[in-house]
Amino acid sequence: MLDVRCFIPRRADKLSALLKMNLPNKLTVSRFALTVLFLWALFSPLRFNDTLALIFFCVASFTDYLDGSISRRRGLVTNFGILMDPLADKVLVCSAFIAFVESTHLNPGAPVKVAAWMVIIIVARELAITGMRLLAASKKTVLAADNLGKLKTVFQIVTVIALLITDATNEWSPWLQNVFQPWVAGFAQLALWVTVVLTAVSGLIYLWRNREIYLSDT
Q: What are the strands, taking DSSP E only, across the chain?
């Protein structure tokens, strides 16, 4: 008969390891949890689900800024953070855009529609760059993000927030609706197109500039 007590020390060790993580790494891990909460809120039947999803996404995005700032300021850069921080960012952003395709399907009358092909470009770009960075890491080479890539990330986050606000305004008081509804949908639509173009262009430029990484294996 299986003795359940044999699993207790292992669980205790895992919990101890998590508690011993430095603050930036804890923030990175929390971003995975916040992504799950964001997706739950987005499709929840709760009355203010879109507003709740907006809050979760904003908090998750802020942890991205916070963990990087703290790790650089306190010298807490670790291999775990180098690997998991960008992965957490990609999981958060890609999950949001994929979810918008589903919400567009569920709500055909939405003021801003996120097409599947747009999300395919965004996800494909992130997977390609991540794959190339892993290949570079296997060759003891670190590929840092360039300025265009950082700008792309900013636009992605701004676009997701704008799309969430577009949906969430229906749950807000009339005076807030009067502030946001006249312009936020148009801004979200423009930001979406800029994000798709910037994501594709920045990815192609990054792949070309670092082509020796993958061409040397062909």
A: none
- Among 78, 149, 160, residue whose Cα is nearest residue 118: 160
Q: Can you tell me whether residue 75 is helix, strand or coil?
A: coil
* C-alpha dist (Å) from residue 16 to 12, 13, 70, 107: 6, 5, 22, 45
Tokens of 180: 């946001």
Of 81, 80, 55, 52, which Cα lies nearest the Cα of 67?
Answer: 81
Residue type, 83: L
Spatial distance between the Cα atoms of 88 and 143, rounded to a whole number of angstroms:
17
Question: How many residues appear in the chain?
Answer: 218
CA angle (161 as vertex; 158, 163 as ends), nearest 5: 110
pTM recorded for the entire structure: 0.87
Residue 89 in tokens: 């960012």
Instruction: Report how far apart the first and last C-alpha atoms of the chain are (Å, whole number).
Output: 53
> CA triplet 149, 116, 118: central angle to 5 degrees?
30
Show the CA angle centred on residue 143, arms to residues 70 and 205, nearest 5°.
115
The answer to whether the Cα torsion of 130, 136, 140, 146 is positive or negative is negative
What is 7-215's CATH topology?
Four Helix Bundle (Hemerythrin (Met), subunit A) (1.20.120)
Q: What tokens appear for 29 in the block?
A: 């891990």
- Give 87-140 pLDDT, tens digit per residue: 889 999 999 999 999 998 888 888 999 999 999 999 999 999 988 888 888 888
**65 near 8, Cβ under 8 Å?**
no
